[in-house]
Amino acid sequence: MTQITDKNNVIRDIKGFMFDLDGVLWLGDHPIPGVANTLKQLRREGKQLMFVSNTSSRSKAKCLSIFKHMGLDVDSSEVFIASECAAKYVASQMPGAITYVLGSEGLLEEALAAGLDARNASTRNPEKAHYLIAGKDNDLSFARLTCALRVLQSGARFVAVNCDPTVPSQDGLEPGAGAIVAAITAMVNRDPDVIVGKPGTLLLEMALEQSGLDAAECAIVGDTLETDILAGNRLGLSTILVLSGNSKGLDMSAPDAYPIEFRPDIVMNSVEDLVY
Question: Does residue 75 sit within a domain?
Answer without folding.
Answer: no
